[in-house]
Design goal:
single chain, 277 residues, mainly alpha
Length: 277
């Protein structure tokens, strides 16, 4: 069974990463062919940095993803703390259900419903254009929030509940106890939620397509508009740069998780020593 398992694992990895490997290789192609590698060159990277429209769309995407990830992380952390403090099991179950709805709901349904809401609200208050950067930002926060909550909640449940109580017994206010005791404990979950929200916002197309205004274009929308004509290899160069940026963020997230696991292991060893003593 071991050789079969190894072959199956290699096949899965080949299926997952072969398209990315091809994209990386042909981003350095001298020509514009997708089947013939004519020579190593940085020509398409040079062309990318001269394409003002694509760079503008990339800037819009990064600004949107950064704003959405920061705001959703702050709101999601606050929501996770609130949910964790609920005593009623019914309320906790209800909040968990409400939190999961944006994740299981199809993107196209979410996008259309948000678009209709924004248009209705815009006409209600007499706006000329209902869709703009702010509507897209609200939409991105909406679908990023549940992922942040689901990353922070487990860290809150793993935390020793006596720690903030001890801090308040020593004179800390509840807010100060949260900053000094709880926040460092749940920080790995907050960081993972932030990175996940950033990557989800960076990658989103469907919801962005329905909630974007005419004056604001993100990178996925621009690439979609280019597919109607032709996608030049400079898009492969851009995809390569984004891939390595996301890879760095994932490594950072994994390092934070490893550090959190080491802290938990040290605490367990201390507890065992104290109980043994």
């Amino acid at each position: 069974m071991k050789p079969i398992a190894k072959f199956y694992t290699a096949l899965i990895f080949l299926f997952l990463f072969a398209p990315i490997a091809i994209l990386l290789v042909f981003s350095f192609n001298e020509g514009n062919s997708l089947s013939v590698f004519s020579g190593f060159s940085l020509y398409w990277y040079k062309e990318l940095f001269h394409d003002t429209n694509t760079l503008g769309a990339l800037k819009n995407t990064l600004v949107l993803a950064l704003c959405a990830s920061i705001l959703s992380t702050i709101m999601g952390t606050a929501a996770a703390v609130g949910i964790n403090k609920l005593r009623s099991r019914f309320m906790k179950a209800a909040m968990s259900t409400v939190t999961n709805i944006p994740m299981v709901n199809p993107d196209i349904i979410t996008g259309i419903s948000l678009m209709l809401m924004f248009v209705f609200a815009g006409r209600l208050i007499g706006l000329g254009t209902s869709l703009n950067f702010w509507t897209m930002l609200i939409a991105h926060i909406t679908f990023c929030l549940p992922y942040v909550i689901l990353q922070v909640l487990p860290k809150l449940r793993q935390m020793d509940k006596s720690l903030p109580e001890a801090a308040m017994d020593l004179g800390c206010t509840p807010f100060r106890a949260f900053l000094k005791v709880e926040l460092p404990e749940i920080f790995p979950g907050i960081l993972t939620g932030l990175i996940m929200a950033f990557t989800l916002s960076l990658d989103d197309f469907v919801i962005s397509y329905f909630t974007a205004g005419n004056g604001f274009e993100t990178l996925p929308i621009r690439i979609y508009s280019m597919t109607k004509k032709t996608v030049t290899p400079k898009m492969y160069a851009l995809a390569t740069l984004i891939f390595f940026a996301i890879l760095a963020l994932l490594l950072l997230s994994n390092l934070a998780d490893v550090d959190d696991e080491e802290k938990q292991a040290r605490r367990e060893r201390r507890r065992k020593k104290r109980s043994g003593a």
